[in-house]
Specification:
The complex is a heterodimer of chains A (390) and B (388).
Chain A: H1 2-8, H2 16-31, H3 39-64, H4 72-89, H5 94-118, H6 123-142, E1 147-148, H7 154-158, H8 173-196, H9 198-201, H10 208-229, H11 239-257, H12 259-269, H13 271-276, H14 281-307, E2 309-310, H15 318-328, H16 340-359, H17 364-389
Antiparallel strand pairs in A: 1-2
Helix pairs in contact in A: 1-10, 2-16, 3-10, 3-11, 3-14, 3-15, 3-16, 4-5, 4-6, 4-14, 5-6, 5-14, 8-10, 11-12, 12-14, 15-16, 15-17, 16-17
Chain B: H1 2-24, H2 33-45, H3 54-59, E1 69-74, H4 80-95, E2 99-104, H5 109-121, E3 126-129, H6 138-146, E4 150-154, E5 166-170, H7 172-190, E6 196-200, H8 209-226, E7 230-232, H9 239-242, H10 249-263, E8 271-273, H11 277-289, E9 296-297, H12 304-312, E10 317-320, H13 323-338, E11 349-351, E12 356-362, E13 365-368, H14 372-375, H15 380-385
Parallel strand pairs in B: 1-2, 1-3, 3-4, 4-5, 5-12, 6-7, 6-8, 8-9
Antiparallel strand pairs in B: 10-13, 11-12
Classes of the chains: A mainly alpha (390), B alpha/beta (388).
Chain lengths: 390, 388
């Protein structure tokens, strides 16, 4: 146990969900006759859930500041419908259409941020209004009819990395390159951290935990690289997955390393204390809501790319999936607690559950029931643990 | 010195990665065996003599099971025709000896996309898709095509994708024409001399059939509206004005309430074009609540409740699209595909925005009180409803 702690860090509890995730994958793989851990299924898993995970990134920050955003599904639907109409009816190129979608997301976010931060209307009410406004808007501008999008946009929702280079690697070389790059970056970070470790205390930490960590991560990333890269030729790690990974890194850095990130946690933890210590609470509220709606637009783009058409019902109840991911990831309902990585694990738990149950042919009705129980169990477990710690 | 360490680490990584990839034995195009052989057989068939029928070629594979996995993705089970389809597909496909995966998507597009993907993962050779929204399955169906899976659209067109091999449906424009003709027949029979006051209702715009029903109906009604035989009192004659989002009966009922309150305070309504039975009943209920005489109303699907209403004279007509016939037609196409005979011939094609898709159309049947007993002669469940 002591050795495990040295490798993984003092707080082992944060790995509960990771263990649950791995256990789920293994159980489903056995139960479905080894259909879970295959290249194509993992590709499906990522491209089919990227939009929810993108939403969860923004939702995490909203929940950390102690608010909730019910409008994200509607905003995603609205932004992507505007995008489709821009491209289809006004014949503008696809990249302009994407910019328009992002701009719509930004405007929607500014609108909600304004009501929350300037007028002090609770986020629940503001975004409940937004949910109706933007849902109505989608149906209004589309006349309730789906609008196909240009085929270039398909790349964002269902595309794969290019094939190149030698065939002897036995997999998609773009994916291989990504995997090697990821491992290299991780190693460099770990070694730098190790090199710095004695600077303050004067006592260098042991090297072996670092080495074990590196080997572990190398094996995991290497395995993932192989799983995603060795599918049918023409397939690879999916583009929506790549976009998601970039966003995860970006938001991990924002929440952990920037002053804005620290403000988000400060405001969520104790609003008055944050205000007294000079944090601009209104600005933090505003930016968090703005950011959420931009990410909603991104999620809409990913989904429409996969669907090849924007539909009037797009985004219905996506907010619920995003919120569930955040809470399964261990965020606190009262705000102030939650991390990007844990949220992604929470989202993946939901995704794997959904996917595994479908592979086993379980109907949508029962899947829904099971997901509900998992959400409750995860949060109950979390609350129980926190109580015991005190 | 640090650089040296990094280099050595990178080498370790390279070794680790190559070991991991090496043990996998490289990538292969995962073939779905039966579909592959079926497709090969299909291409071979063009230059070989058409020997034997499908049952003979199946016999070689063993008599207990014909083999083959069939996936059926349905939009939901909330209306009688879809609920029936689920049961009938299960019975008929299993009777034919196929392994069957049936899933309903609860009207959610993402759910349906993932269900279709999981059917591909489960090795389906043919996937039958009753889409939630026929335009939104593009990339998923192309994935099926790439994996060598046949895709058959059931009841609705699959648009905006190359990954579709054929559509089985009731002629939807024809259905609309029949609805309108039944409405006219009823008006002449029950409401005396022209002109008649009527209102128009359409189905859910996300369903590509809905505009076609309406279009078909309007080819019959529009000339009579123009010459004054029919009067649409509310003036709402565009599909977008008449449409009922998601085929939601309660939305149709509120629209009818509003139309009656706004336009029929001192006149009587004679007839209503309704795109399906649920909406027809909502319209009739609305008229009853408003104190109007029951108008002549068309319908579709021959739902049990509406069959009763037609029999009692409350709803003038419905159009039966016997689910059994549609499922049987679909299963016969699946038989042909899995026996290696490819898609059957058809004259009708429909452009789905990308390609021309072969369409297998079945004729719908108008049901009124007069012919109900003949139409449902082979349907004991519905015959039982006609005795009361």
């Amino acid at each position: 146990m002591k050795y495990i702690k040295k490798v993984l860090g003092e707080d082992l509890r944060q790995y509960t969900m990771v263990v649950a995730l791995v256990a789920l994958i293994i159980v489903f793989n056995i139960a479905s006759g080894e259909k879970m851990v295959t290249s194509s299924n993992f590709q499906n898993l990522i491209s089919g859930n990227a939009y929810v995970l993108v939403l969860a990134l923004g939702m995490l920050m909203v929940i950390v500041i102690g608010q909730i955003d019910l409008s994200v599904g509607s905003v995603a639907g609205f932004a992507s419908m505007v995008m489709a109409i821009t491209a289809r009816q006004f014949n503008l190129p696809w990249y302009i259409a994407i910019l328009v979608a992002l701009a719509i997301g930004m405007l929607a976010g500014a609108w909600q941020g304004f009501f929350l931060s300037r007028l002090g209307i609770p986020g629940f009410i503001t975004t409940l209004g937004g949910m109706m406004i933007f849902r109505g808007g989608v149906i209004w501008i589309s006349n309730s009819i789906s609008v196909p999008v240009p085929s270039e946009l398909k790349w964002f929702g269902a595309g794969y990395l290019p094939e190149w280079g030698p065939a002897f690697t036995g997999m998609n070389n773009s994916t291989l390159l990504l995997g090697v790059l990821a491992i290299a970056v991780y190693i460099i970070i770990q070694l730098k951290k190790y090199a710095r470790s004695g600077d303050i205390t004067g006592e260098k930490e042991e090297f072996w935990p670092v080495a074990v960590r590196i080997v572990l991560v190398t094996v995991v990333i290497g395995y993932m690289t192989w799983i995603f890269g060795s599918g049918r030729p023409g397939t690879s790690f999916p583009i929506p997955g790549l976009i998601l990974v970039i966003l995860i890194i970006l938001y991990h850095l924002i929440t952990e390393r920037t002053s804005f990130g620290r403000h988000v946690y400060a405001v969520g933890g104790n609003k008055s204390a944050a205000e007294l210590s000079g944090v601009n609470v209104k600005r933090t509220y505003f930016l968090t809501m703005l950011n959420m709606s931009i990410l909603a637009a991104v999620a809409g783009i990913l989904f429409v790319g996969r669907s090849t058409a924007a539909g009037p019902a797009d985004g219905t109840s996506w907010e619920m999936d995003a919120i569930a991911s955040v809470f399964i990831g261990g965020a606190a309902v009262s705000g102030g607690v939650g991390t990007v990585i844990a949220t992604m694990v929470g989202g993946l738990v939901m995704a794997v559950l959904n996917n595994g149950l479908m592979l086993m042919g379980v109907g949508a009705d029962k899947t829904q029931v099971i997901k509900g129980f998992v959400l409750l169990a995860a949060v109950a477990f979390d609350v129980y643990n926190k109580k015991n710690r005190r | 010195m640090k650089a040296k360490k990094i280099v050595s680490m990178l080498m370790t990584v390279a070794v680790a990665v190559s070991v991991l990839t090496g043990c996998g034995g490289g990538r292969t195009a995962e073939p779905t065996s039966v579909a592959d052989t079926a497709k090969t057989a299909e291409t071979e068939k063009t230059d070989s003599k058409p020997t034997g029928n499908s049952s003979e070629s199946n016999a070689s594979e063993g008599n207990s099971s014909k083999g083959g996995v069939v996936g059926v993705a349905l939009p939901w089970l909330g209306t009688q025709n879809w609920a029936e389809a689920e049961v009938m597909f299960k019975e008929q496909l299993e009777a034919a000896g196929y392994e069957t995966i049936i899933q309903a998507a609860d009207q959610k597009v993402p759910q349906q996309q993932q269900q279709i993907e999981s059917m591909i993962e489960n090795g389906a050779n043919v996937i039958v898709v009753g889409p939630v929204d026929g335009t939104q399955l593009g990339s998923v169906l192309e994935k099926a095509k790439d994996a060598g899976v046949y895709v058959i659209g059931y009841d609705r067109l699959l648009e905006n994708t190359t990954g579709v091999d054929g559509i089985v449906q009731f002629g939807s424009v024809k259905t609309g024409e029949l609805q309108a003709q039944a409405l006219l027949q009823g008006l002449e029979e029950l409401k005396g001399e022209a002109p008649y006051n009527i209102e128009l209702f359409g189905g859910g715009p996300a369903d590509p059939n809905a505009p076609n029903f309406f279009k078909g109906a309007m080819t019959v009604l529009q000339p009579l509206i123009d010459d004054g035989t029919l009067v649409v009192v509310s003036g709402q004659t565009e599909f977008t004005q008449c449409a009922t989002a998601d085929w939601d009966n309660s939305k149709a009922q509120s629209r009818m309430d509003a139309i009656l309150a706004g336009n029929y305070s001192d006149i009587e309504i004679d007839g209503v074009l309704s795109p399906n039975d649920g909406i027809a009943r909502a319209i009739i209920t609305s008229c009853e609540n408003a104190g109007q005489p029951i108008p002549v109303v068309s319908g579709l699907d021959a739902e049990n409740e509406s069959v009763k209403w037609v029999w009692s004279g409350k709803q003038y007509s419905t159009v039966a699209k016997p689910t059994n016939a549609l499922v049987a037609k679909t299963v016969s196409i699946i038989d042909s595909l899995l026996a290696g005979n490819g898609m059957p011939e058809t004259d009708v094609t429909a452009n789905n925005g990308v390609i021309d898709v072969p369409v297998y159309e079945l004729p719908p049947v108008v049901v009124t009180k007069d012919n109900a007993k003949e139409v449902f002669a082979d349907d004991p469940d519905r015959m039982a409803l006609l005795t009361e």
